[in-house]
Specification:
The chain has five domains: 138 residues, no CATH class; 197 residues, no CATH class; 118 residues, no CATH class; 113 residues, no CATH class; 121 residues, Beta Barrel (Elongation Factor Tu (Ef-tu), domain 3). Strand 17 and strand 18 form a beta hairpin. It is α+β, with helices and mostly antiparallel strands. The protein contains 20 helices and 22 strands. Helix 18 packs antiparallel against helix 19. It has a six-stranded antiparallel barrel with strand order 7-16-21-18-17-22.
Length: 740
């Protein structure tokens, strides 16, 4: 039975149940639908109703007025707990539901200032029948019985809807909430508000005194105790979030039908059914219920901040850390957006007192598109001031773009989350249901009404489509841009072959081929050479003395072998000594010599002594994407644009590698060091993430700085259309991802 309307509010879940466009209604008393119908039937028992009688269990509540001040009513279906908002016209129709359509329209036009025709009455009857608000006829009962006898779970459509969204009621908390309200009344006082604010301020002060510990605690969130604390905090915070909606609704007199969890694309989310908030006449009360969940988490965050400062290390303290930081931020980020059907949407609807904001704004935006693009005579579904209309259209377009981004992200996240076979199927389902189906539905409306489109608009539409296809298919793109590094073609980086001491180091400047660059010495090497030479001398002197001895032949053979070993050691020492004499391999510019090196300094094998470059010959190693490398022929013209230097250098393509690059030898190109190529470490080298091919360019001039430069290569390649490029990339992705 209908309960008295209290100044209350609730999370506006019923916003998804649409009503007819608003119409004005005088301040009449509420009437029960069944009684109104029976009284009128008694006056004219022979009148044929326009549709079957209304269900006797329906209830009618006076609702909050429309934004223009017109009163409104809400029809409550107690079986489904849904509410349907109606206005004056629909209300007058319900009062005369026993009359035939023609007489009903005549009576309304005579006794009120409304102007109604039979077509409007038939539309209202169709609306009531579609939402099962009329008493079922025998044919309708037969259809319902047949439908209920079918196993829904055998239907693919049922599985599709269940996968995308399903609600599972768990508890009916109304009695519990009403019993708890006397105990929780102090939470709704100013004193409680000031206590929460004071506790939050105290917690922030204590946290600042332990700031290093507070910051370092985030590093422990990935530990087992941190993950356990995260899970505990998540369950508690989301439960209290929904409990906040339910408590405020109960306090304001709205019945909470049930609470439970919903699976949105297999992701669990708690929910609170507060549909009866549409009985409330004050939209500010509905706003209080909509915002209660976020306010509860904010208050919880303040108290958790103080609790973290007072607790010892452990799972409970980790939970408080999550509630004080990550929890409320994630909740606010999720619920603040008015473009999805979460708290932010209902909060905005209640602030501006505009129910069914998404549906109504979307309908107005579609009508606007049909008028402007197709030239159809499509009036706006509702009449608003021009400044309100453009705001609603803008909101609808932003909502569509936002949802497109979110749904694409969810679709690909599901694809990568599941194994490939199931992931591909779920990806296709979500792309169809959330992205392609709404577009297809609108295109079918355009097709159905194509005969109404003026010839001028048809010509413009087909011309626009043709121009877009032509622009996409025309091979506009000629130049390729690729990151690269310019360097001298001949380069000699001079290192010491051994840990050695500098005897002489040639100063920077021009050197000739074969000229000494550095002379090094190893005292140990000289000592070894002296010992070896002494051994060679001794063995050489010993050999003639063995000739006349009785057993001299055997001893002579052993001495000869030892002498050969020492001679080999001498040659090895000489080779090592020669390696310490570092010479220029070609004529070039000797540069980057360490100014701190002096005669007598020691150097290691890892520190370069200098670099010899050929300033007359420079090349660029550019890295091109796999999908574009086939467009580059040898000998193609190119330009190299050094970074932070505005003058390009002409170049030609020398060669293109036939295999992808397995490593990235230039650190400056790595994205982690300011470059543009994403790379990841692999053992002792760095590998590009995407398949890249090296293209070597020959510079026709050398850069004035005469050093290795990072920049961008502009290569004249074979022309290719954007459409062909997209098709290639798409086909490559399909081939790559289709391998099981």
């Amino acid at each position: 039975m209908s309960q008295p309307i209290a100044p209350a509010d609730i999370e506006s879940q019923a916003a998804k149940h649409g009503g007819l466009p608003s119409s004005k209604l005088p301040s009449d008393a509420l009437a029960a639908l069944g009684l109104a119908g029976k009284a009128d039937q008694a006056k004219e028992p022979k009148a044929a109703p326009p549709a079957p009688p209304l269900r006797e269990d329906l209830k009618l509540h006076q609702s909050a007025p429309f934004p223009d001040g017109a009163p409104a009513w809400a029809i409550q279906d107690p079986i489904t707990n849904r509410f349907y908002r109606i206005g004056w016209l629909e209300y007058e129709c319900l009062l005369r539901w026993h009359l035939p359509p023609a007489k009903m329209a005549q009576d309304i036009n005579t006794s009120t200032t409304l102007e109604v025709d039979e077509e409007q009455i038939a539309e209202f009857a169709k609306f009531l029948d579609q939402h099962s608000l009329l008493r079922a006829t025998p044919q309708k009962v037969e259809q319902l019985q047949k439908k209920s006898g079918e196993a829904k779970w055998k239907s693919g459509k049922w599985w599709l809807h269940t996968y995308l969204f399903v609600r599972v009621p768990v508890i009916r908390p109304q009695r519990f909430l009403q019993a708890m309200m006397p105990w929780l009344d102090p939470l709704f006082t100013r004193t409680a508000l000031w206590l929460v604010l004071g506790a939050t301020a105290l917690g922030l002060i204590l946290v600042t005194r332990q700031w290093d510990t507070f910051v370092n605690s985030f590093m422990d969130m990935l530990s087992p105790s941190g993950l356990a604390g995260f899970a505990l905090a998540l369950v508690v915070s989301k439960t209290l979030h929904e409990l906040g909606h339910a408590l405020v609704a109960t306090r304001l007199g709205v019945r909470v039908a049930h609470m439970g969890f919903a699976m949105v694309v297999l992701w669990p989310m708690l929910y609170t059914d507060t549909s009866e908030s549409w009985r409330l006449r004050n939209h500010k009360h509905r706003l209080a219920i909509s915002i209660a969940g976020v306010c509860t988490e904010l208050a919880l965050a303040g108290l958790a901040t103080l609790a973290w400062a007072l607790l010892d290390d452990g799972i409970l303290r980790q939970s408080m850390l999550y509630m004080a930081t990550t929890g409320w931020i994630l909740s606010l980020a999720l619920n603040a957006s008015p473009f999805m059907r979460f708290d932010g949407y209902f909060i905005l609807s209640d602030i501006i007192n505009f129910p069914n904001l998404h549906e109504r704004a979307g309908a107005i935006a579609k009508a606007f598109m049909r008028r402007k693009l197709l030239g159809l005579n499509e009036p706006d579904p509702e009449s608003f001031r021009p400044e309100v209309l453009w705001k609603l259209r803008l909101f609808a377009y932003i909502t569509w773009l936002y949802r497109l981004t979110v749904f694409l992200g969810i679709a690909f996240a599901v694809y990568y989350f599941f194994f490939k076979a199931l992931g591909i199927f779920l990806l296709a389902v979500e792309l169809w249901w959330f992205v392609a189906k709404p577009v297809w539905t609108e295109l079918m409306v355009w097709k159905k009404r194509w005969s109404e489109v003026p010839k001028r608009n048809r010509f413009m539409i087909w011309s626009f489509v043709g121009i877009i296809v032509a622009l996409a298919a025309f091979p506009w793109s000629a130049d390729l841009k690729a990151p690269g590094v310019a360097r001298a073609e001949r380069l000699q980086v001079v290192y010491s072959p051994q840990a050695a001491q500098v005897l002489k180091l040639t100063p920077q400047g021009q050197v000739a081929a074969g000229q000494s660059l550095a002379q090094l010495d190893m005292p140990d090497l000289q000592a070894r050479k002296a010992r070896t030479e002494a051994s060679v001398t001794a063995l050489s002197n010993q050999l003639p003395q063995l000739m006349g001895q009785e057993q001299g032949l055997d001893t002579q053979q052993a001495t000869i072998r030892r002498l050969e070993e020492q001679l080999a050691e001498t040659r090895a020492i000489d080779e090592e000594a020669a390696q310490l004499q570092l010479k220029a391999e070609f004529t070039g510019d000797w540069r980057d010599v360490d100014p701190h090196l002096r005669a007598g300094s020691w150097v290691s094998t890892k520190i370069p002594l200098g670099v010899l470059v050929d300033p007359q010959s420079w090349v660029v190693d550019a890295y091109v994407d796999q999908q574009q490398v086939h467009r580059i022929p040898p000998g193609a013209k190119a330009q190299f644009w050094p970074q932070r230097w505005g003058t390009p250098i002409d170049a030609t393509v020398l060669d293109v590698d036939s295999a992808r690059s397995q490593q990235l030898p230039y650190t400056t190109l790595d994205a982690r060091h300011g470059g543009t190529i994403s790379a990841q470490p692999h053992e002792k080298e760095v590998r590009p993430v995407q398949p890249l091919y090296r293209v070597r360019l020959k510079l026709k001039a050398f850069p004035p700085q005469m050093r290795e430069l990072r920049g961008t290569a502009h290569i004249s390649a074979e022309r290719s259309s954007w459409l062909w490029h997209v098709m290639q990339n798409g086909l490559a992705v399909v081939i790559r991802e289709s391998g099981f």
